[in-house]
Amino acid sequence: MITVSDFPKYRGTMEYVCLGCQARFDIRELYYTCPHCGGVFILEDTSFDSLLEFPPSYWQGLFDKRAATRVTALRGVLRFYELMAPVMDEEDIVYLGEGHTPMVAANDALTELVGVPFYYKNDGQNPSASFKDRGMACAFSYLKHLVRVNDWDSVLTVCASTGDTSAAAALYAAYVGGPIKSVVILPKGKVTPQQLAQPLGSGATVIEVPGVFDDCMKVVEHLADNYRVALLNSKNAWRILGQESYAFEVAQWFGWDTYRKCVFVPIGNAGNVTAIMGGFLKLKKLGIIRSLPRIFGVQSQHADPVFQYYNEADPAKREFRPVSVTPSAAQAAMIGNPVSFPRVAHFAKEYEKIGGPGSFQVLQVTEQAIVEGMLVANRHGHISCTQGGECLAGLLKAKELGLIEPSEVAVLDATAHHLKFIGFQEMYFEDSFPAAYGVKSDPKYVNRPRSIMTEAEKAQLSPEAYTAKAAEAIVESLGLARK
Protein backbone atom coordinates (compact mmCIF):
# COMPACT_ATOMS: atom_id res chain seq x y z
CA MET A 1 0.00 0.00 0.00
CA ILE A 2 1.54 3.31 -1.10
CA THR A 3 1.40 6.02 1.56
CA VAL A 4 1.32 9.41 -0.11
CA SER A 5 2.19 11.10 3.17
CA ASP A 6 5.79 9.97 2.64
CA PHE A 7 8.11 11.77 0.27
CA PRO A 8 8.84 9.66 -2.85
CA LYS A 9 11.68 7.17 -2.60
CA TYR A 10 12.35 7.05 -6.33
CA ARG A 11 15.42 8.88 -7.58
CA GLY A 12 16.06 9.29 -11.28
CA THR A 13 19.33 9.54 -13.17
CA MET A 14 19.13 12.87 -14.94
CA GLU A 15 21.36 14.36 -17.62
CA TYR A 16 21.44 17.44 -19.79
CA VAL A 17 21.01 16.45 -23.45
CA CYS A 18 21.97 18.93 -26.18
CA LEU A 19 19.44 19.07 -28.99
CA GLY A 20 22.18 20.23 -31.36
CA CYS A 21 25.03 17.74 -31.07
CA GLN A 22 23.41 15.23 -28.64
CA ALA A 23 26.21 15.69 -26.10
CA ARG A 24 25.32 14.81 -22.52
CA PHE A 25 26.37 16.61 -19.35
CA ASP A 26 26.18 16.04 -15.61
CA ILE A 27 23.46 17.93 -13.75
CA ARG A 28 25.77 18.85 -10.87
CA GLU A 29 26.71 21.93 -12.89
CA LEU A 30 24.30 24.56 -14.20
CA TYR A 31 24.27 24.48 -18.00
CA TYR A 32 22.13 26.64 -20.29
CA THR A 33 23.73 26.20 -23.72
CA CYS A 34 25.96 23.41 -24.92
CA PRO A 35 29.66 24.29 -24.53
CA HIS A 36 30.38 22.22 -27.66
CA CYS A 37 27.88 23.62 -30.18
CA GLY A 38 25.83 26.30 -28.42
CA GLY A 39 22.62 24.26 -28.64
CA VAL A 40 19.85 24.25 -26.04
CA PHE A 41 19.27 21.45 -23.55
CA ILE A 42 16.48 19.24 -22.43
CA LEU A 43 16.73 17.21 -19.24
CA GLU A 44 16.33 13.46 -19.51
CA ASP A 45 15.82 10.89 -16.79
CA THR A 46 17.70 7.88 -18.13
CA SER A 47 15.91 5.71 -15.55
CA PHE A 48 12.44 6.80 -16.75
CA ASP A 49 11.60 3.45 -18.32
CA SER A 50 11.80 1.83 -14.88
CA LEU A 51 8.54 3.63 -14.08
CA LEU A 52 6.85 1.32 -16.60
CA GLU A 53 7.07 -1.43 -13.97
CA PHE A 54 3.94 0.10 -12.47
CA PRO A 55 0.62 0.06 -14.38
CA PRO A 56 -1.07 3.30 -15.49
CA SER A 57 -3.72 2.90 -12.79
CA TYR A 58 -1.00 3.06 -10.15
CA TRP A 59 0.22 6.46 -11.35
CA GLN A 60 -3.30 7.81 -11.84
CA GLY A 61 -4.24 6.81 -8.30
CA LEU A 62 -0.99 8.12 -6.81
CA PHE A 63 -1.25 11.54 -8.43
CA ASP A 64 -4.94 11.80 -7.55
CA LYS A 65 -4.15 11.06 -3.89
CA ARG A 66 -1.33 13.57 -3.83
CA ALA A 67 -3.70 16.27 -5.07
CA ALA A 68 -5.10 16.26 -1.53
CA THR A 69 -1.84 15.77 0.39
CA ARG A 70 -0.75 17.93 3.32
CA VAL A 71 2.93 17.29 2.59
CA THR A 72 4.17 20.75 1.62
CA ALA A 73 6.76 19.54 -0.88
CA LEU A 74 4.09 17.60 -2.78
CA ARG A 75 1.30 20.17 -2.68
CA GLY A 76 2.45 22.08 -5.76
CA VAL A 77 3.78 21.08 -9.15
CA LEU A 78 6.23 18.60 -7.61
CA ARG A 79 3.35 16.28 -6.71
CA PHE A 80 4.25 14.81 -10.12
CA TYR A 81 7.74 14.28 -8.71
CA GLU A 82 8.63 11.08 -10.56
CA LEU A 83 7.79 12.65 -13.93
CA MET A 84 9.63 15.92 -13.45
CA ALA A 85 12.80 16.35 -11.42
CA PRO A 86 13.21 13.23 -9.28
CA VAL A 87 16.65 14.05 -7.92
CA MET A 88 15.86 16.35 -5.00
CA ASP A 89 15.14 15.74 -1.35
CA GLU A 90 12.08 17.01 0.45
CA GLU A 91 13.98 19.84 2.13
CA ASP A 92 14.99 21.27 -1.26
CA ILE A 93 11.51 21.79 -2.68
CA VAL A 94 10.11 25.31 -2.70
CA TYR A 95 6.33 25.69 -2.56
CA LEU A 96 4.55 29.04 -2.69
CA GLY A 97 1.12 27.83 -3.73
CA GLU A 98 1.83 27.28 -7.42
CA GLY A 99 -0.05 24.75 -9.50
CA HIS A 100 -3.57 23.42 -8.92
CA THR A 101 -4.86 26.34 -10.99
CA PRO A 102 -8.56 26.08 -11.83
CA MET A 103 -10.09 25.02 -15.11
CA VAL A 104 -13.13 27.26 -15.65
CA ALA A 105 -15.63 26.20 -18.29
CA ALA A 106 -17.00 28.83 -20.66
CA ASN A 107 -20.61 29.60 -19.80
CA ASP A 108 -23.45 28.73 -22.15
CA ALA A 109 -23.51 32.16 -23.81
CA LEU A 110 -19.77 32.18 -24.58
CA THR A 111 -19.83 28.55 -25.73
CA GLU A 112 -22.67 29.36 -28.12
CA LEU A 113 -20.82 32.46 -29.35
CA VAL A 114 -17.60 30.54 -30.05
CA GLY A 115 -19.26 27.34 -31.24
CA VAL A 116 -16.94 25.00 -29.34
CA PRO A 117 -17.03 24.00 -25.66
CA PHE A 118 -13.89 25.16 -23.90
CA TYR A 119 -12.18 25.87 -20.61
CA TYR A 120 -9.79 28.53 -19.49
CA LYS A 121 -6.99 27.23 -17.29
CA ASN A 122 -6.36 30.24 -15.08
CA ASP A 123 -2.61 30.20 -14.54
CA GLY A 124 -2.90 33.83 -13.47
CA GLN A 125 -3.97 32.39 -10.11
CA ASN A 126 -0.43 31.26 -9.39
CA PRO A 127 1.41 33.20 -6.62
CA SER A 128 3.00 35.87 -8.82
CA ALA A 129 -0.08 35.83 -11.08
CA SER A 130 1.40 33.93 -14.03
CA PHE A 131 2.30 30.46 -15.29
CA LYS A 132 6.01 31.25 -14.82
CA ASP A 133 5.72 30.15 -11.19
CA ARG A 134 5.48 26.53 -12.33
CA GLY A 135 8.94 26.70 -13.87
CA MET A 136 10.41 28.81 -11.07
CA ALA A 137 9.24 26.35 -8.41
CA CYS A 138 11.26 23.62 -10.11
CA ALA A 139 14.24 25.81 -11.05
CA PHE A 140 14.59 27.31 -7.56
CA SER A 141 14.10 23.93 -5.90
CA TYR A 142 17.02 22.56 -7.89
CA LEU A 143 19.05 25.70 -7.27
CA LYS A 144 18.36 25.36 -3.55
CA HIS A 145 19.48 21.73 -3.81
CA LEU A 146 22.77 22.78 -5.44
CA VAL A 147 23.35 25.48 -2.83
CA ARG A 148 22.88 22.91 -0.08
CA VAL A 149 25.02 20.10 -1.49
CA ASN A 150 27.80 22.45 -2.70
CA ASP A 151 27.64 24.81 0.29
CA TRP A 152 27.59 27.85 -2.01
CA ASP A 153 27.67 31.18 -0.17
CA SER A 154 26.56 33.45 -3.03
CA VAL A 155 24.29 32.90 -6.05
CA LEU A 156 23.12 35.70 -8.34
CA THR A 157 20.10 34.81 -10.45
CA VAL A 158 19.44 36.78 -13.61
CA CYS A 159 16.67 36.84 -16.20
CA ALA A 160 15.38 38.86 -19.13
CA SER A 161 11.68 39.56 -19.03
CA THR A 162 8.67 41.38 -20.37
CA GLY A 163 7.20 41.16 -16.87
CA ASP A 164 6.00 37.71 -15.81
CA THR A 165 9.40 35.99 -15.63
CA SER A 166 10.88 38.81 -13.58
CA ALA A 167 7.96 38.80 -11.16
CA ALA A 168 8.23 35.05 -10.60
CA ALA A 169 12.03 35.00 -10.35
CA ALA A 170 12.08 37.87 -7.86
CA LEU A 171 9.32 36.33 -5.75
CA TYR A 172 10.96 32.90 -5.44
CA ALA A 173 14.40 34.41 -4.84
CA ALA A 174 12.97 36.57 -2.05
CA TYR A 175 11.36 33.52 -0.44
CA VAL A 176 14.40 31.24 -0.62
CA GLY A 177 16.70 34.06 0.51
CA GLY A 178 20.06 33.20 2.00
CA PRO A 179 22.80 33.32 -0.61
CA ILE A 180 20.36 33.75 -3.51
CA LYS A 181 19.92 37.28 -4.90
CA SER A 182 17.81 38.32 -7.89
CA VAL A 183 18.59 40.63 -10.83
CA VAL A 184 16.06 41.17 -13.61
CA ILE A 185 16.67 42.92 -16.94
CA LEU A 186 13.67 44.56 -18.59
CA PRO A 187 13.13 46.40 -21.89
CA LYS A 188 12.59 50.03 -20.87
CA GLY A 189 9.05 51.19 -21.48
CA LYS A 190 7.89 47.74 -22.68
CA VAL A 191 6.61 46.42 -19.34
CA THR A 192 3.27 47.31 -17.78
CA PRO A 193 3.39 49.33 -14.53
CA GLN A 194 1.82 46.42 -12.67
CA GLN A 195 4.51 44.01 -13.85
CA LEU A 196 7.33 46.44 -13.12
CA ALA A 197 6.02 46.86 -9.57
CA GLN A 198 6.28 43.15 -8.80
CA PRO A 199 10.07 42.58 -8.87
CA LEU A 200 10.61 45.97 -7.23
CA GLY A 201 8.27 44.94 -4.44
CA SER A 202 10.11 41.65 -4.00
CA GLY A 203 13.40 43.51 -3.54
CA ALA A 204 15.10 42.46 -6.78
CA THR A 205 17.65 44.62 -8.54
CA VAL A 206 15.79 45.82 -11.65
CA ILE A 207 17.82 47.00 -14.64
CA GLU A 208 16.13 48.60 -17.64
CA VAL A 209 17.81 48.56 -21.06
CA PRO A 210 16.64 50.05 -24.35
CA GLY A 211 15.13 47.71 -26.93
CA VAL A 212 12.76 44.74 -26.80
CA PHE A 213 12.83 41.38 -25.03
CA ASP A 214 15.16 39.84 -27.62
CA ASP A 215 17.76 42.52 -26.81
CA CYS A 216 17.47 41.81 -23.09
CA MET A 217 17.81 38.09 -23.74
CA LYS A 218 21.09 38.61 -25.61
CA VAL A 219 22.47 40.54 -22.64
CA VAL A 220 21.44 37.79 -20.22
CA GLU A 221 22.93 35.08 -22.45
CA HIS A 222 26.21 37.00 -22.57
CA LEU A 223 26.25 37.22 -18.77
CA ALA A 224 25.45 33.52 -18.35
CA ASP A 225 28.15 32.50 -20.86
CA ASN A 226 30.88 34.60 -19.28
CA TYR A 227 30.08 35.09 -15.58
CA ARG A 228 28.93 33.03 -12.62
CA VAL A 229 25.22 33.74 -12.65
CA ALA A 230 22.17 31.47 -12.62
CA LEU A 231 20.05 32.13 -15.70
CA LEU A 232 16.30 31.80 -15.10
CA ASN A 233 14.80 32.23 -18.55
CA SER A 234 13.38 29.26 -20.42
CA LYS A 235 16.89 28.35 -21.60
CA ASN A 236 17.07 26.92 -18.10
CA ALA A 237 15.95 23.33 -18.69
CA TRP A 238 14.79 22.97 -15.07
CA ARG A 239 12.19 25.64 -15.72
CA ILE A 240 10.84 23.66 -18.65
CA LEU A 241 10.41 20.63 -16.39
CA GLY A 242 8.33 22.66 -13.95
CA GLN A 243 6.08 23.89 -16.73
CA GLU A 244 5.31 20.30 -17.78
CA SER A 245 2.99 20.26 -14.77
CA TYR A 246 0.45 22.23 -16.83
CA ALA A 247 -0.03 19.17 -19.06
CA PHE A 248 -0.27 16.85 -16.06
CA GLU A 249 -2.94 19.02 -14.44
CA VAL A 250 -5.01 19.28 -17.62
CA ALA A 251 -4.98 15.49 -18.00
CA GLN A 252 -5.82 15.01 -14.33
CA TRP A 253 -8.75 17.45 -14.56
CA PHE A 254 -10.33 15.32 -17.28
CA GLY A 255 -9.85 12.13 -15.27
CA TRP A 256 -6.81 11.23 -17.42
CA ASP A 257 -9.02 11.14 -20.54
CA THR A 258 -7.53 13.46 -23.16
CA TYR A 259 -9.34 11.99 -26.16
CA ARG A 260 -10.69 14.75 -28.48
CA LYS A 261 -9.17 17.47 -26.35
CA CYS A 262 -7.33 20.43 -27.88
CA VAL A 263 -4.91 22.65 -25.95
CA PHE A 264 -4.24 26.21 -27.13
CA VAL A 265 -0.98 27.80 -25.96
CA PRO A 266 0.58 31.20 -26.76
CA ILE A 267 4.12 30.55 -28.02
CA GLY A 268 6.18 33.55 -26.86
CA ASN A 269 9.67 32.30 -26.03
CA ALA A 270 8.40 28.77 -26.81
CA GLY A 271 9.22 27.29 -23.40
CA ASN A 272 5.64 26.64 -22.32
CA VAL A 273 4.43 24.99 -25.51
CA THR A 274 7.43 22.64 -25.56
CA ALA A 275 6.97 21.83 -21.87
CA ILE A 276 3.32 21.00 -22.45
CA MET A 277 4.14 18.72 -25.38
CA GLY A 278 6.90 17.08 -23.31
CA GLY A 279 4.52 16.55 -20.40
CA PHE A 280 1.82 14.89 -22.49
CA LEU A 281 4.44 12.67 -24.16
CA LYS A 282 5.57 11.41 -20.74
CA LEU A 283 1.98 10.62 -19.74
CA LYS A 284 1.44 8.74 -23.01
CA LYS A 285 4.65 6.75 -22.63
CA LEU A 286 3.54 5.53 -19.20
CA GLY A 287 0.01 4.81 -20.45
CA ILE A 288 -1.46 7.32 -17.99
CA ILE A 289 -3.32 8.83 -20.95
CA ARG A 290 -4.38 6.74 -23.95
CA SER A 291 -4.21 9.45 -26.59
CA LEU A 292 -2.41 12.75 -27.03
CA PRO A 293 -4.52 15.90 -27.06
CA ARG A 294 -3.94 18.13 -30.06
CA ILE A 295 -1.74 21.15 -29.41
CA PHE A 296 -2.30 24.52 -31.12
CA GLY A 297 0.46 27.08 -30.67
CA VAL A 298 -0.76 30.64 -31.26
CA GLN A 299 1.23 33.67 -32.38
CA SER A 300 0.39 37.28 -33.12
CA GLN A 301 1.13 38.39 -36.67
CA HIS A 302 3.40 40.96 -34.98
CA ALA A 303 5.73 38.23 -33.65
CA ASP A 304 5.27 34.99 -35.56
CA PRO A 305 8.55 33.19 -36.37
CA VAL A 306 7.26 29.75 -35.35
CA PHE A 307 4.10 30.20 -37.43
CA GLN A 308 6.22 31.22 -40.41
CA TYR A 309 8.35 28.10 -40.00
CA TYR A 310 5.41 25.68 -39.88
CA ASN A 311 3.46 27.58 -42.52
CA GLU A 312 5.79 25.88 -45.02
CA ALA A 313 3.96 22.64 -45.78
CA ASP A 314 7.06 20.74 -46.91
CA PRO A 315 9.24 19.88 -43.87
CA ALA A 316 12.28 19.61 -46.12
CA LYS A 317 11.94 23.26 -47.11
CA ARG A 318 11.41 24.66 -43.61
CA GLU A 319 14.02 27.08 -42.34
CA PHE A 320 13.74 28.97 -39.09
CA ARG A 321 14.26 32.71 -39.40
CA PRO A 322 13.91 35.20 -36.53
CA VAL A 323 11.54 38.09 -37.24
CA SER A 324 11.56 41.74 -36.22
CA VAL A 325 8.66 42.26 -33.85
CA THR A 326 6.20 45.13 -33.85
CA PRO A 327 4.19 46.18 -30.77
CA SER A 328 1.81 43.57 -29.42
CA ALA A 329 -0.77 43.66 -26.66
CA ALA A 330 0.28 40.08 -25.90
CA GLN A 331 3.53 41.41 -24.47
CA ALA A 332 4.79 38.10 -23.15
CA ALA A 333 4.51 36.70 -26.67
CA MET A 334 6.28 39.61 -28.41
CA ILE A 335 9.44 37.63 -29.13
CA GLY A 336 10.94 37.38 -32.59
CA ASN A 337 13.68 34.85 -31.83
CA PRO A 338 12.42 32.37 -29.22
CA VAL A 339 15.31 30.63 -27.48
CA SER A 340 13.32 27.40 -27.13
CA PHE A 341 12.58 27.00 -30.83
CA PRO A 342 14.91 23.97 -31.11
CA ARG A 343 12.80 22.37 -28.39
CA VAL A 344 9.64 23.14 -30.41
CA ALA A 345 11.08 21.36 -33.45
CA HIS A 346 12.22 18.42 -31.32
CA PHE A 347 8.98 17.86 -29.42
CA ALA A 348 6.68 18.62 -32.36
CA LYS A 349 8.41 15.90 -34.38
CA GLU A 350 8.00 13.41 -31.51
CA TYR A 351 4.42 14.55 -30.94
CA GLU A 352 3.34 14.07 -34.54
CA LYS A 353 5.12 10.71 -34.68
CA ILE A 354 2.71 9.44 -32.01
CA GLY A 355 -0.32 11.71 -32.40
CA GLY A 356 -0.30 11.79 -36.19
CA PRO A 357 -0.33 14.70 -38.65
CA GLY A 358 -2.04 17.78 -37.28
CA SER A 359 -1.52 16.84 -33.64
CA PHE A 360 0.68 19.94 -33.41
CA GLN A 361 -0.18 23.09 -35.36
CA VAL A 362 0.61 26.78 -35.19
CA LEU A 363 -1.92 29.55 -35.84
CA GLN A 364 -1.42 33.24 -36.58
CA VAL A 365 -3.90 35.83 -35.26
CA THR A 366 -4.29 39.61 -35.44
CA GLU A 367 -3.79 42.11 -32.64
CA GLN A 368 -7.42 43.15 -33.01
CA ALA A 369 -8.51 39.56 -32.40
CA ILE A 370 -6.18 39.23 -29.39
CA VAL A 371 -7.50 42.28 -27.54
CA GLU A 372 -11.13 41.56 -28.38
CA GLY A 373 -10.62 37.91 -27.38
CA MET A 374 -9.57 39.09 -23.93
CA LEU A 375 -12.51 41.50 -23.68
CA VAL A 376 -15.09 38.93 -24.84
CA ALA A 377 -13.77 36.29 -22.44
CA ASN A 378 -13.83 38.65 -19.47
CA ARG A 379 -17.32 39.89 -20.33
CA HIS A 380 -18.39 36.30 -19.79
CA GLY A 381 -16.84 35.92 -16.34
CA HIS A 382 -13.19 35.05 -16.96
CA ILE A 383 -9.99 36.80 -15.85
CA SER A 384 -8.07 36.40 -19.08
CA CYS A 385 -4.88 38.31 -19.86
CA THR A 386 -3.99 39.35 -23.40
CA GLN A 387 -2.22 36.00 -23.91
CA GLY A 388 -5.49 34.30 -22.93
CA GLY A 389 -7.16 36.56 -25.49
CA GLU A 390 -4.59 35.31 -27.99
CA CYS A 391 -5.66 31.74 -27.23
CA LEU A 392 -9.36 32.56 -27.74
CA ALA A 393 -8.43 34.26 -31.00
CA GLY A 394 -6.58 31.06 -31.91
CA LEU A 395 -9.62 28.92 -31.12
CA LEU A 396 -11.80 31.13 -33.31
CA LYS A 397 -9.20 30.94 -36.10
CA ALA A 398 -9.06 27.14 -35.82
CA LYS A 399 -12.85 26.98 -36.09
CA GLU A 400 -12.81 29.35 -39.07
CA LEU A 401 -10.25 27.14 -40.82
CA GLY A 402 -12.19 23.95 -40.04
CA LEU A 403 -9.41 22.60 -37.84
CA ILE A 404 -11.61 21.88 -34.82
CA GLU A 405 -15.04 20.30 -34.50
CA PRO A 406 -17.90 21.36 -32.18
CA SER A 407 -17.71 17.93 -30.50
CA GLU A 408 -14.13 18.52 -29.37
CA VAL A 409 -13.23 20.27 -26.10
CA ALA A 410 -10.63 23.03 -26.03
CA VAL A 411 -8.42 24.21 -23.17
CA LEU A 412 -7.12 27.79 -23.40
CA ASP A 413 -4.06 28.92 -21.50
CA ALA A 414 -4.68 32.20 -19.65
CA THR A 415 -1.02 32.61 -18.77
CA ALA A 416 -1.37 35.58 -16.41
CA HIS A 417 -3.97 37.52 -14.45
CA HIS A 418 -6.08 40.06 -16.31
CA LEU A 419 -5.06 42.85 -13.93
CA LYS A 420 -1.45 42.71 -15.14
CA PHE A 421 -2.62 43.91 -18.55
CA ILE A 422 -5.36 46.29 -17.51
CA GLY A 423 -3.68 49.12 -19.39
CA PHE A 424 -4.50 47.48 -22.73
CA GLN A 425 -8.17 47.31 -21.77
CA GLU A 426 -8.04 51.02 -20.95
CA MET A 427 -6.36 51.80 -24.27
CA TYR A 428 -9.12 49.91 -26.09
CA PHE A 429 -11.91 51.68 -24.21
CA GLU A 430 -10.30 55.05 -24.95
CA ASP A 431 -9.46 54.07 -28.55
CA SER A 432 -5.91 55.20 -27.86
CA PHE A 433 -3.82 52.32 -29.21
CA PRO A 434 -0.80 53.68 -31.11
CA ALA A 435 -1.05 53.00 -34.84
CA ALA A 436 1.72 50.37 -34.68
CA TYR A 437 -0.63 47.97 -32.85
CA GLY A 438 -3.27 48.05 -35.57
CA VAL A 439 -6.11 47.97 -33.03
CA LYS A 440 -9.25 50.10 -33.34
CA SER A 441 -12.06 50.16 -30.80
CA ASP A 442 -15.44 48.67 -31.62
CA PRO A 443 -18.16 50.52 -29.62
CA LYS A 444 -19.90 47.25 -28.76
CA TYR A 445 -16.91 46.24 -26.60
CA VAL A 446 -16.29 49.63 -24.98
CA ASN A 447 -17.35 50.13 -21.36
CA ARG A 448 -16.79 53.44 -19.56
CA PRO A 449 -17.96 54.85 -16.20
CA ARG A 450 -21.10 56.97 -16.28
CA SER A 451 -20.97 60.30 -14.45
CA ILE A 452 -24.25 61.63 -13.10
CA MET A 453 -23.20 64.71 -11.16
CA THR A 454 -20.25 67.07 -10.80
CA GLU A 455 -18.53 67.92 -7.53
CA ALA A 456 -19.75 71.53 -7.92
CA GLU A 457 -23.37 70.36 -8.25
CA LYS A 458 -23.01 68.14 -5.18
CA ALA A 459 -21.58 71.04 -3.14
CA GLN A 460 -24.76 73.06 -3.70
CA LEU A 461 -27.01 70.36 -2.23
CA SER A 462 -27.81 69.30 1.33
CA PRO A 463 -26.93 65.67 2.15
CA GLU A 464 -30.60 64.69 1.87
CA ALA A 465 -31.06 66.53 -1.41
CA TYR A 466 -27.83 65.00 -2.79
CA THR A 467 -29.06 61.47 -2.04
CA ALA A 468 -32.40 62.10 -3.69
CA LYS A 469 -30.88 63.86 -6.70
CA ALA A 470 -28.23 61.16 -7.25
CA ALA A 471 -30.82 58.41 -6.94
CA GLU A 472 -33.12 60.21 -9.36
CA ALA A 473 -30.32 60.51 -11.92
CA ILE A 474 -29.49 56.80 -11.59
CA VAL A 475 -33.15 55.87 -12.02
CA GLU A 476 -33.31 57.91 -15.21
CA SER A 477 -30.02 56.47 -16.51
CA LEU A 478 -31.03 52.84 -15.89
CA GLY A 479 -34.76 53.21 -16.66
CA LEU A 480 -35.76 51.67 -13.32
CA ALA A 481 -39.44 51.00 -12.58
CA ARG A 482 -40.88 51.87 -9.18
CA LYS A 483 -42.02 49.02 -6.92
Automatic annotation (TrEMBL):
Cofactor(s) recorded in Swiss-Prot or TrEMBL: pyridoxal 5'-phosphate
GO molecular function annotation: L-serine ammonia-lyase activity; pyridoxal phosphate binding; threonine deaminase activity; threonine synthase activity
Signal peptide (UniProt feature, chain positions): none
Entry protein name: Threonine synthase
EC numbers for this chain: 4.2.3.1
Pfam families: PALP
The Tryptophan synthase beta chain-like PALP domain, residue ranges: 96-411
Post-translational modification N6-(pyridoxal phosphate)lysine, affected residues: K132
One GO-annotated biological process of the protein: threonine biosynthetic process
Assigned keywords, A-Z: Amino-acid biosynthesis, Lyase, Pyridoxal phosphate, Threonine biosynthesis
Organism from which the protein derives: Solidesulfovibrio aerotolerans
SUPFAM superfamilies listed in its UniProt record: Tryptophan synthase beta subunit-like PLP-dependent enzymes
Catalytic activity: O-phospho-L-homoserine + H2O = L-threonine + phosphate
Biological pathway: Amino-acid biosynthesis; L-threonine biosynthesis; L-threonine from L-aspartate: step 5/5
Gene3D superfamilies from the UniProt entry: 3.40.50.1100
Family from the record: Belongs to the threonine synthase family.
InterPro entries, alphabetized: Ser/Thr_Dehydratase, Ser/Thr_deHydtase_PyrdxlP-BS, Thr_synthase-like, TrpB-like_PALP, TrpB-like_PALP_sf
